[in-house]
Amino acid sequence: MGLKVKKEVIYGILFFACVGVPYLGSYELTFGVWSLTTLLTVRNKYSLTILQQVGCFASIFLIALCISFFHEVKTYEYIRDITYMVKPILGLLIGYQLCKDYMKNPLGLVVNTGILIAIAHLLVMVFSIMMYRITDMHKLREYSGYFSDYEVYALIILLFRKEFNLNISGKKYQIGVLLLSVSIALYLARTNFIQLGIFYLALKGYFRINKRSVIIISTLVFVLGASYAAIYSYNPKRGSKGFEAFLYKIKIAPTEPFKTKVRADDWKDFHDNYRSYETILTLRQVPQGGVSAVLFGEGMGSSIDLKRKVWLQTSLMRYIPFLHNGFMTVFLKSGLIGDIILIISILLFFRHKKTDDSRVKHLNYLMTGTGLFLVMSYWVFMGLYFVPDSKSVIIGFLIRYRENVIASLKNPKLIS
């Protein structure tokens, strides 16, 4: 028993390290920590569920790898793309391997990690405001972070603690909800608000088709439509500060990633619809390589020519290897076949066996919510390929935890 407790602590530390390291902003460090953890925690057996997910991303990776043999690629660009394309595979395996059947409170580890990240985020915000006298929302996000999908997972699990049979005290529950809610709210990330909404609806069972869910979803769509109409009518201006700047981002959200024409000579239109600009250029460039490029992409080391230098993150770039749109990135590297496989990886989240157990049922609901959120996440923020993100780790962890719970139901002697 003592050895298991020690191992549980070690795995907990590794889990926190793997989830937390992407927030430091160094992919080299993230890749190193994730690769080492994967090697240190390799299992003897893997379920069909996790192998199907990993297999999808491995297939996308192998297509891009094989196609790159037919193109001249610089060594650095080739290696860089390999490390980026393998990221979802590492994350899924890490999460799956770190969730042990002898852990007494696996979801407590998920929540505690989220709370620690929220505390760190709030401290960075306070430090940035005091040190740099920041009053602008965009500048504050630049210093303290743009989003945190992981914290949303932690918060939703905490909010549904009874359904997940989460062992946590009432006081810690209240403090955790407060810290996570404030932290998530201060990211001012539209995707995180949408993610939280999708997860909440999913865990309430509203994505199961019945009369009640249809009424609720229809009402919600009407309310959201009316709210957007009110914001559009209010007409928040570009360049506004504070909350009005956030309203402006909501105003342009429906068209930002879907425009079919962007005026590159109009800096306002170009900046507001840059995601669409990337997509347009990708859909123009890849077909120029013929049918094979459309089907299988341009392989590792390929990039999109933006036709001009654009300030991205920390430098001016004209040729970009990865886009904001995950579907377009996979299309560039692995073509339509790659995108079809990526869609299959999303559809796998909707396959569940019926169960009467509350934990399993709500884990299934959370997987359904994850699948729905990933559709949007891939379109606007690279999904599981996004460098400063750890969604794949929590997904792999939850897949294994669900399997442990199911196993414990069949054999009550097992600890779940």
Helicity level, as a percent range?
55-70%
Query: Which oligomeric form is depicted?
Result: single chain
Number of helices: 18
Give the total of beta strands: 2
What would you report as the Rg, rounded to the nearest angstrom?
22 Å
How far apart the termini lie comes to 15 Å
Shape label: globular
Q: Estimate the mean pLDDT confidence.
A: 88
Structural class: mainly alpha
Major sheet description:
2 strands, antiparallel
Task: Classify the beta-strand content into a percent band.
Answer: under 5%
- The strands making up the biggest β-sheet line up spatially as 1-2
Describe the structure.
The protein contains 18 helices and 2 strands. The chain is mainly α and 416 residues long. A two-stranded antiparallel ribbon has the order 1-2. Helix 2 packs across helix 5 and helix 5 packs parallel to helix 18. The chain is globular, with a radius of gyration of 22 Å. The chain starts with a helix and ends in a 6-residue tail after the last helix. The mean pLDDT is 88.
What's the topology here?
Blueprint: H1 2-20, H2 27-40, H3 48-68, H4 75-85, H5 87-98, H6 106-132, H7 137-144, H8 149-159, H9 170-187, H10 190-203, H11 211-234, H12 243-252, H13 267-272, H14 274-285, H15 291-296, E1 304-312, E2 315-320, H16 326-347, H17 358-381, H18 391-410
Antiparallel strand pairs: 1-2
Helix pairs in contact: 1-5, 2-5, 3-5, 3-16, 5-18, 6-8, 6-9, 8-9, 8-10, 10-17, 16-17, 17-18
Question: Main attributes?
Answer:
416 residues, two-stranded antiparallel sheet, mainly alpha
